[in-house]
Amino acid sequence: MLDLVYPRVTPGPPRPSRILMPGLATGVERYEVLGCGALLIPVAEGDRVSVVNTEGGQRAELVVADEKGRIDAGILGERSDSDAGGLKALLAGGAGSGLGGLRLGLAARGIDLAQAGAVALFDAETPAGTEHTFTVTRAGVLIIAAPGAAMAPDAQDTATPLGVRVQRATLRRVGQFALPDPLADPVLDLRVKSATAEAYFVKAGDYIQVIDVDGRQCTDFQCFSARKLDKGIEHALDVTTSRTLMGHDFSRPGLHSKYYDHDMLPLVEVVQDTVGRHDAFALACASKYYDDIGYPGHTNCSDNFNRALAAHGVTARAGWMAVNLFFNTNIDAHGVVISDEPWSRPGDYVLFRALTDLICVSSACPDDTSPANGWYLSDIHVRTYSGAEKFQRAIATRATPDAEPKMTKETAFHAQTSARTRNLVEYKGYWLPQAYPGGAIEEYWACRQQAVVIDLSPLRKVEVTGPDAEALLQYALTRDVKKLSVGQVVYSAMCYPHGGMIDDGTLFRLGRDQFRWIGGDDYGAVWLREQAQALELKVMIRSSTDQMHNLAVQGPNSREILKRMIWTAPLQPSIDELGWFRFAVARIGGPEGAPVVVSRTGYTGELGYEIFCHPKDGSAVYEAVWTHGRDLGLRPMGLAGLDMVRIEAGLIFAGYDFSDQTDPFEAGIGFTVPLKTKTDDFIGRDALIRRKEHPSHRFVGLVIDAASDVGHGDPVHLGRAQIGVVTSATRSPQLGNIALARLDVAHSAVGTAVEIGKLDGQQKRLPAQVVTLSHYDPKKTRPQS
Fold first, then answer.
1. DSSP per residue, 220-236
2. What is the 3-state secondary structure (H, E, C) of 532-599?
3. Please, are residues 45 and 163 in contact by the beta-carbon 8 Å criterion?
4. How many beta carbons lie within 10 A of that of residue 70, not counting itself?
5. Could you say which of 40, 165, 411, 454 has the lowest number of CB atoms within 10 Å?
6. 285 exposed, middle or buried (CB, 10 Å; 0-12, 13-18, 19+)?
7. Whether 703 contacts 768, CB under 8 Å
8. Distance, CA of 193 to CA of 179 (rounded, Å)
9. 469-476 vs 523-535: helix axis angle to the nearest 10?
10. Is 690 within 8 Å of 497 (Cβ atoms)?
11. Is the CB of residue 727 less than 8 Å from the CB of residue 686?
């Protein structure tokens, strides 16, 4: 008899895949209440609600109402101990306060706040991360407010966000998430059930909101001109035509927002998008797709479209072209179309505006054979709103993967800039001008010869205050903060322990224990807060970006413009006295004018200043600059012109010239790392010593001997071998075709001849020569003049 040999096995049932999905913890919902904002959240019996003072020092007010709209703090097991004055003041702020949705939600539930009491939490001294947790005793709604007032530019009492976590007593699964409150009073409220499609009419000018109710569910959207259909003309939205005209992979809020039919008739424009990842290449799923992968007869969006559109006389098609909302598709390095789970989360949406009378159709995709719908099928919801409503164009961004989305905002100067150009782009969560009607070259010459005004409000401002503020910044920044005087500004890098850069920025010292960090990324504040908490330092790190918007006035005539409009008290330096990298607390026009902070800083390589103000004073500040600069040749400048002058001056830009893999030496700002004179330890010091002593790359300038465009990411070659990469490039009106590049240190000497690869890097080459980093005024004599 043969002895049987059995294979060794791992005992027990299979383990589920370990997949980390930040912000999507099972049974936990996360919300963010913006500073000077409020939020309404439905709650149920047994839910645990935690309110977190994310940045510290922010008051909170909680108002609770039952399902009949009656105010009752007992639902949280608490008693009201304030009159909800902060919440009432926010709601009294008018239509521009951004709380229209909350007002609508209160009205729909019959909640009257006139006599409402609130549960008050936190105070100005509350440390960051402090939280209170409540258990809900019965169903109702919770209104959470983060009240605050306008912050003066030289003050630091900013209003900051509150974090909210709701641990649901009953786990919400697909199909159980609550439909978000409408953005306004709906004209149409339409549920598109899972694996079906619905057709509907939309009047010209009205808005169409397509909502992913449960998250990670795709939907195909298609529409026709209703007037063409009346004539028997079946011209559907054509994504190929739309991509060609818009120059993008899919249309998005802003200048490139429209979708067209193949006659180039605009049908819809995208107004808001909370996801930012869709598909406009592939057809809606069709019967042949499923047949070919072994699922004959599978329900599909194209057949569902045919059934829904039949009532409108639309001829059936085997496969429908569509805007595939929430689909996460891409083309990999080998040219293969790939797809993965959608980025959309419960309640995410796209908001369109109808540009003509439309017949629309929306599906809830039935694909359960791939990750396209996150492996679970759910519903889609469609709402339409009257064209009389006003919705700002907006794109959602997240500072970190588990952060709540923030919609694009308008800066304090938007009324002035948008009146002068429609060429606006989304940048860091705000709409900024890309160029003005005269064009970037006209703006360039104005900056170099006269003066320009630039909206730079998206720069992230962070208030760092407390007895350990200096100690934290001395440890977290590369510069020697102990040498910084009150009224002085210093440019610094912020690095990870391995020496890679988090951000670059400027640090203002407002007092002995008061600093303001101004950088390019929200994560700088998060990083500072994490270091302070790890070291148990007594310091507050609070964002003030929404309380502090800024204009740059740059160019040879900038000093004269500011002399005409800025008043400073006797203890503050006048504009004539203000030194390079210094600032003054000032006012516009006189001692009763709008308060501002003026710094002698800039991003152009020219003499220049920046003016910081609260958004409520934005119009007054812009108009003052414009009035006093008009006869001195002042022009507005957009991002395209700014890119020209900053590249000429060798000034770096995050995401292009540096990343977390780049150290300050490789980014050309080694002067921000005083290794020989800063005697205190700082984050990344040991790694930076090692990287300085053994450099592998050097940041250089290139002059290109060809009138052909060069761009970020183009390879730099010596013979066949790639020795570096272009990080930024521009066609300079006075210096020719120039670039910034990071090259292998062995081939980075000034005068080295190299070639920039185009096409595949080999078939087309542009000859270039290595030069010093700053093409324009390398000794920085102009900004110091």
1. EEEEEEHHHHHTT---B
2. HHHHCCCCEEEECHHHCEEEEEECCCHHHHHHHHEECCCCCCCCCCCCCCEEEEEEECCCCCCEEEEE
3. no
4. 13
5. 165
6. buried
7. yes
8. 13
9. 110
10. no
11. no
For residue 662, the 8-state DSSP code is -
* Centroid of chain to Cα 588: 31
Taking the chain, what is the end-to-end CA distance rounded to the nearest angstrom?
A: 100
Is-contact 602 622, C-beta < 8 A?
no
Half-sphere exposure at residue 479, Cβ-oriented, CA atoms within 13 angstroms: 21
Whether residue 395 contacts residue 408, with contact meaning beta carbons closer than 8 Å, is answered with: yes
Please give the Cα distance from 163 to 52 (Å, whole number). 5
In this predicted structure, what is the pLDDT of residue 92?
86
Task: With both helix axes pointing from N to C terminus, report the angle between 440-449 and 639-648 in degrees, rounded to the nearest 10.
Answer: 50
In whole angstroms, give the CA distance from residue 563 to residue 574: 8
Distance CA 766, CA 709 (A): 10
Non-local (6+) Cβ contacts of 306 within 8 A are: 314, 316, 317
DSSP structure string for 63-76: EEEETTS-B-GGGG
Rounded Cα gap, residues 299 and 309, in angstroms: 16
Structure tokens at 636: 């507005």
Tokens of 537: 């330092």
Q: How far apart (Å, rounded) are the C-alpha atoms in residues 52 and 64?
A: 17
624 — phi, psi (to 5°)? -65, -45
Torsion of CA 168, 174, 180, 183, to 10 degrees: 160
Q: Are 58 and 162 in contact (CB under 8 A)?
A: yes
pLDDT at 25: 54
| Token pair belonging to 741 | 């590049």
Backbone angles phi, psi at 259, to 5 degrees: -120, 140
Alpha helices, H only, 279-392: 287-292, 301-309
Here the tokens at position 63 are 């108002």
8 Å CB contact between 366 and 298: yes
Please answer whether residues 64 and 188 qualify as being in contact, where contact means their C-beta atoms are separated by less than 8 angstroms.
no
- The confidence score (pLDDT) of residue 22 equals 57
Sheet containing 130-135: order of strands: 28-33, 162-167, 48-53, 130-135
Q: Is 7 exposed, middle or buried (0-12, 13-18, 19+ CB in 10 A)?
A: exposed
**Using alpha carbons only, what angle is made at residue 577 by residues 573 and 582, rounded to the nearest 5 degrees?**
70
Its pTM stands at: 0.89
Answer for the pair 160, 57: CB distance below 8 angstroms, yes or no. yes
Residue 370 tokens, joined: 């791939």
Residue type, 754: V
What does the alpha-carbon distance between residue 211 and residue 382 come to, in Å, rounded to a whole number?
6
For helices 618-629 and 558-565, angle between their N-to-C axes, nearest 10 degrees: 120
Report the distance separating Cα 369 and Cα 294, nearest Å. Answer: 10
Structural contact between residues 255 and 247, judged by C-beta atoms closer than 8 angstroms? no
Distance from C-alpha of 719 to C-alpha of 348, rounded to nearest angstrom: 50
Could you tell me if 603 and 398 are in contact, meaning their C-beta atoms sit under 8 angstroms apart?
A: no
CB 144 within 8 A of CB 33: yes
| Distance of alpha carbon 530 from the chain centroid | 21
Question: How many angstroms separate the CA atoms of 489 and 502, rounded?
Answer: 19
The amino acid at 518: I
**If the chain, 785 residues long, is cut into consecutive pieces of 10 residues, what is the mean pLDDT of each piece?**
72 73 66 91 93 95 92 92 90 69 87 89 93 94 93 92 91 76 94 97 98 94 97 96 95 93 97 93 95 96 97 96 94 87 91 98 96 92 96 82 79 97 93 96 98 98 98 98 98 98 98 97 94 96 96 98 97 97 98 97 97 97 98 98 97 96 97 97 97 96 96 96 97 96 97 95 94 92 93
The structure tokens 């205190």 sit at: 680
Q: Measured between alpha carbons, how far is 322 from 352 in angstroms, rounded to an integer? A: 14
The Cα–Cα gap between 526 and 523 comes to 5
pLDDT at 413: 98
- Consecutive H or E run containing 89: helix 85-91
